[in-house]
Amino acid sequence: MSGPAGTAASTRRKRVFILGGGASLGAHQVGAIKRLAEEGITPDAIVGSSIGVINACIYASGGVESLERAWLDFPSVARVLRPSLRHNLLTGLSLFSMDPFASSIERYIDFDALLASQLELSFILLNLSRGEGQFFSNRQARSAEELRKLSRAGYAIPILFPPITFRGEVYVDGGFAWNVPLLQAVEMGATEIYVLAVVATALPFRRSFRGLPAFLLRLSDVMWRTLGNVGYVTTRIDPDGTYRGIPVTVIHPTEELSGFNLVTLLSTSRGRSRRLIDAGYRDAKRELTRLRRARGAVRTPSEGDALVEPAFRHGVA
């Protein structure tokens, strides 16, 4: 009896969504999730980093409709960033208290529902006590309040917000260590992976730079593009679109949303969120259309085929 049961378990589908971090650019994921849902593509598990933790929690609480409504209703971050007697650079470990920001988000999250959910949620956190990145899931939390703490740790941006103490150890936003953790999805037993990155993986070509400011701006764009996709862009994805035999679909913004701008990253408005949601929807539709066409033109990869989207190319010209 154990043989057939084991066979059924080993072939059961597990579709994992990876929601990378990127502050206000997280609205792009809303449109992508919406388009995927229209195609009947929904997750069995979600790996979240930074803003991806917030999106995962809201989605698991109320679905894509709740997620879209939340983003169109979120206040500007500047309106909820406040220093306090406890949380400030003179007597604390951060510029601002997290409470006003977290409260504006948590009204869309049902932590009791997340605790009992069949949807597996995995958050990447940076453990400052041990000096390493760690993953925690909703299945490891012992109570709704513990799950609330874990989610807050997931977007506790260092310096901006204070670290979170959980079971005697100190945690902050794990996106700084591993923002798009492709390997984590594999280790969770994924049979399909959808990477919903919010940081563009392509930058417009620049042949030269006029002066130091332009050079430094380009350098910051490249660093943002690379660090914002850590865990994906340096991974060898095979020419057939698989990683370790697992199909990987990547949905990311086009060049129009490339580049680093701290002001816009920390700014949200109804109009900006709507534009990003619409862009995510278009980008998901474009990628799904490309994949359907590619299935009809499958070819045997040649030795010269690229094995990875270029962040670091494996080999030289």
Keywords:
globular, 317 residues, 9 strands, single chain, disordered C terminus, alpha/beta, disordered N terminus, 9-stranded mixed sheet, 10 helices, 14% strand, 38% helix
Condensed summary:
Helices cover 38% and strands 14% of the residues.
Helix content: 25-40%
Report the uncertain regions: 1-10, 299-317
Number of beta strands: 9
Based on CA inertia axes, which overall geometry fits? globular
The averaged pLDDT comes out at 85
Please state the CA-atom Rg, rounded to the nearest Å.
Answer: 20 Å
One letter per element, helices H and strands E, the order comes to HEHEHHHEEHEEHEHEEHH
Largest sheet: 9 strands, mixed
Number of helices: 10
- In whole angstroms, the N-to-C terminal distance is 56 Å
Global structural class? alpha/beta
Residue fraction in strands: 5-15%
Description of the structure:
The protein is an alpha/beta fold. 38% of the residues lie in helices and 14% in strands. It is built from ten helices and nine strands. The chain has helices spanning 2-10, 27-38, 51-73, 99-106, 111-116, 144-154, 182-187, 212-227, 262-265, 270-295; strands spanning 15-19, 45-48, 120-127, 132-137, 164-166, 169-173, 192-196, 242-243, 246-251. Strands 1, 2, 3, 4, 5, 6, 7, 8 and 9 form a nine-stranded mixed sheet that branches. 37% of the residues are buried. Residues 1-10 and 299-317 have low confidence and may be disordered.
